[in-house]
């Protein structure tokens, strides 16, 4: 993109953001006039507020937020000052915990899927439905799969900004070398292709994994497999674990077999701490990946972009894991109008598109799915095309206290310390006890 | 000196003074003592307030919270010793405790022994002695996170330095941090390496207080270097050894940073430690009451280990 192109895009985004925020404010003022919110005239919205965010990560994210987005926000709300507290999803819990304990909950918080339930249930988050944001309205403008992640007991507590999905990705150049012209369409085919694509040295050490399952967090990897097997994490009313069903056990057995029977990847060959995804540097021919693999490849090896071919993990039912980021507001904010104004601004098309582009994620606003960014990103497109089979994690309000237990259980099966059934049954017992069952 | 030349008047003056009944002077002394006492209390008050507010109160609060169900959102609810029962029945915390004991058992004596040898060597008149001392102390003043990042690279199964070095001598590489058979040892190695600097520094300081005449006398008696080390150096370093042992045990039991960065307690909890479980309970699972109970267990372990090490080294206040 040329400099003038970039400038035009920024200007367009800027006006788009200001326009949308204004429209949202007007719409909300029609819905509700009593609460102190962004429904008030922007001249009356004032105060020093804090924003806790795991997105806008790194220097580029910080530049985007502070040099581009917040100046636009200040143009509309000159009497509001925003102090930003940057973190990442791994550390978000700590920030929120210390904030709640010390009574210093940030005014606006970005949360992941599965987080809103706990904080809404405990009265930490503001009920945005009371400020005029309804589920029906959100579903008109936002991908419905993600809207429910911000809903608790029928009310809106979080406004989606972005989605992120996990699915299979194949390096077509490597597949073609091995004589395949398309990604696998059945599990048996996947196993056969993975075995054929695995490369070992004469001494037997692994040089290329046929199918990489270790670069992704063990919990998300398993959930992708689980959803592709037609399984679910919890029962319909989220009162009991359901991942140790036949489908769940089969899903984990499939992964264990890939490592121990088909030997398409060795334990330790890759990890979440890898700086370069093995699909990019050719150390894996296929694997389960995050949609931001596209952005990573764009930065590291753009010539490989045409070779990245996404596919749904073939299982008993088509499925895909989807997460996301939602903007929430503290119930105890001293400046609710300013906080809501910022929330609406960040969730509006311009800023949301910029945030998604910086992070390589899928815009939650359906109108942005036609944007140049979304249209030019094959993995984002694929995610959008398959959102109807996507499932998200979370559900019960205890989720945040449960999710950390999943990875060690999955790892114990991958390391053959337990059988998949033992590992999942033990995990289900632990979940049941923690859920008060 | 003859009796007539003695300063009799002075003696006479003193005698009546000594003979004076002390009762009338008591109020003066008592007042003065009270004044001194008040001044003393005034001076220690800031320290007492500081310790009370920032140490005693949190410790008491931790004990109290350990008997409650506290999830940060709701008020703490008294549950007696339920948290302790949960800890007792929790296989992960038992594994964490065992891992912590193993980590301490290997990092403390190994790094103490290496530190002592290095300290003795660097107490000689070596060329570039200061440079060596600085080099050995450097890991101590470097952020653990930075160190852990370097070790992450060293342990990388594909591009890591360790596997590359092993391949030169024909030993197959390992997935050091991903293999549960190796991961704890990999963490122990980092812990032992990082702890050498401060121990070496303490030993060097202690060595410089050892009287050279002892070594000279031993040399005159024909003692070998090894004999001098065991007969003079080691006994003279006993107070320092006790101090190093106690701070090392406390440090080892509180290991957290390198676990947090290197392994996240994995794979499959193979490297989780007591402090890491406290962190997980508090900040990942929002179980502050349970985390407090785990902290109390950690405190109890440290107390017992300190008493054992005091007994083992027959440490005193010298």
UniProtKB/TrEMBL annotation, chain B:
Q: Which family does it belong to?
A: Belongs to the binding-protein-dependent transport system permease family.
List, for all copies, the residue spans of the domain called ABC transmembrane type-1: 97-309
Q: Where in the cell is it found?
A: Cell membrane
Its Gene Ontology biological processes?
A: transmembrane transport
The record gives the membrane topology as: Multi-pass membrane protein
Instruction: Write out the transmembrane intervals.
Output: 39-65, 101-122, 134-154, 182-206, 237-256, 286-308
Please provide the record's keywords in A-Z order: Cell membrane, Membrane, Transmembrane, Transmembrane helix, Transport
Question: Which CDD domains does the UniProt entry name for this protein?
Answer: TM_PBP2
Q: Known Gene3D superfamilies for this protein?
A: MetI-like (1.10.3720.10)
Instruction: Kindly provide the name given to this protein in its UniProt entry.
Output: Sugar ABC transporter permease
CC terms in the record's Gene Ontology section = plasma membrane
Its domain of life reads Bacteria
């Amino acid at each position: 993109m040329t400099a003038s192109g970039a400038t035009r895009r920024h200007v367009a985004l800027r006006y788009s953001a200001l326009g949308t925020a204004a429209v949202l404010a007007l719409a909300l003022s029609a819905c509700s006039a009593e609460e102190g919110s962004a429904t008030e005239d922007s001249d009356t919205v004032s105060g020093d507020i804090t924003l806790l965010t795991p997105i806008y990560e790194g220097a580029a994210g910080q530049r985007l937020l502070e040099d581009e987005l917040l100046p636009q926000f200040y143009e509309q709300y000159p009497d509001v000052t925003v102090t930003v507290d940057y973190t990442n999803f791994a550390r978000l819990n700590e920030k929120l915990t210390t904030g709640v304990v010390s009574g210093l909950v940030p005014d606006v918080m970005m949360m992941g899927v599965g987080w809103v339930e706990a904080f809404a249930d405990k009265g930490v988050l503001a009920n945005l439905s009371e400020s005029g944001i309804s589920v029906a309205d959100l579903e008109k403008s936002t991908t419905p799969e993600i809207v429910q992640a911000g809903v608790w007991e029928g009310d809106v507590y979080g406004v989606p900004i972005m989605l992120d999905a996990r699915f299979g990705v194949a390096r077509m150049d490597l597949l073609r070398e091995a004589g395949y012209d398309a990604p696998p369409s059945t599990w048996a085919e996947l196993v056969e292709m993975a075995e054929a694509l695995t490369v070992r040295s004469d001494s037997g050490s692994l040089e290329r994994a046929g199918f990489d399952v270790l670069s992704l967090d063990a919990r998300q990897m398993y959930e992708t497999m689980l959803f592709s097997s037609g399984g679910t994490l919890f029962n319909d009313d989220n009162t009991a674990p359901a991942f140790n069903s036949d489908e769940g056990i089969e899903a984990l057995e499939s992964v264990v077999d890939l490592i121990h029977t088909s030997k398409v990847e060795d334990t330790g060959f890759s990890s979440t701490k890898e700086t370069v995804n093995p699909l990019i540097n050719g150390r894996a021919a296929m694997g389960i990946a995050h949609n931001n693999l596209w952005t990573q490849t764009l930065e590291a090896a753009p010539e490989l972009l045409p070779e990245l071919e996404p596919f749904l993990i073939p299982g008993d039912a088509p499925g895909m894991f989807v997460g996301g980021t939602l903007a929430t507001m503290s119930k105890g904010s001293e400046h609710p109008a300013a906080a809501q104004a910022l929330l609406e601004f960040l969730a509006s098309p311009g800023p949301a598109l910029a945030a998604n582009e910086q992070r390589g994620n899928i815009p939650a606003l359906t109108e942005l799915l036609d944007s140049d960014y979304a249209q030019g990103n094959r993995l984002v497109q694929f995610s959008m095309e398959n959102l109807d089979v996507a499932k998200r994690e979370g559900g019960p309000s205890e989720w945040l206290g449960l999710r950390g237990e999943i990875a060690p259980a999955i790892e114990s099966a991958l390391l053959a310390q337990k059988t998949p059934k033992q590992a999942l049954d033990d995990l289900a017992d632990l979940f049941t006890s923690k859920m008060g069952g | 000196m003859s009796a007539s030349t003695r300063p009799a008047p002075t003696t006479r003056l003193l005698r009546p003074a000594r003979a004076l009944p002390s009762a009338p002077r008591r109020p003066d002394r008592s007042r003065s003592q009270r004044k001194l006492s008040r001044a003393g209390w005034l001076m220690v008050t800031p320290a007492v307030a500081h310790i009370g507010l920032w140490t005693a109160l949190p410790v008491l609060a931790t004990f109290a919270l350990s008997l409650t169900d506290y999830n940060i959102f709701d008020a703490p609810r008294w549950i007696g010793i339920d948290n302790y029962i949960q800890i007792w029945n929790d296989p992960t915390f038992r594994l964490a405790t065992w891992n912590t004991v193993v980590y301490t058992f290997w990092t403390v004596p190994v790094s103490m022994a290496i530190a002592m040898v290095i300290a003795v060597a660097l107490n000689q008149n070596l060329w570039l002695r200061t440079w060596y001392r600085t080099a050995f102390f450097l890991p101590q003043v470097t952020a653990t996170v930075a160190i852990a990042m370097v070790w992450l690279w060293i342990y990388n199964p594909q591009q890591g330095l360790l596997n590359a070095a092993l391949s030169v001598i024909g030993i197959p590489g390992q997935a050091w941090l991903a293999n549960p058979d190796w991961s704890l040892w990999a963490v122990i190695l980092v812990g032992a390496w990082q702890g050498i600097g401060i121990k070496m520094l303490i030993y060097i300081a202690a060595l410089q207080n050892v009287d050279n005449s002892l070594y000279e006398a031993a040399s005159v008696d024909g003692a070998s270097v090894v004999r001098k080390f065991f007969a003079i150096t080691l006994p003279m370093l006993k107070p320092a050894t006790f101090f190093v042992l106690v701070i090392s045990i406390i440090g080892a039991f509180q290991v957290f940073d390198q676990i947090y960065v290197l392994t996240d307690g994995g794979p499959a909890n193979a490297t989780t430690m007591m402090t890491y479980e406290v962190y997980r309970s508090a900040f990942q699972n929002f179980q502050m009451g349970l985390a407090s109970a785990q902290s109390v267990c950690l405190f109890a372990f440290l107390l017992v280990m300190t008493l054992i090490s005091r007994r083992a080294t027959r440490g005193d206040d010298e």
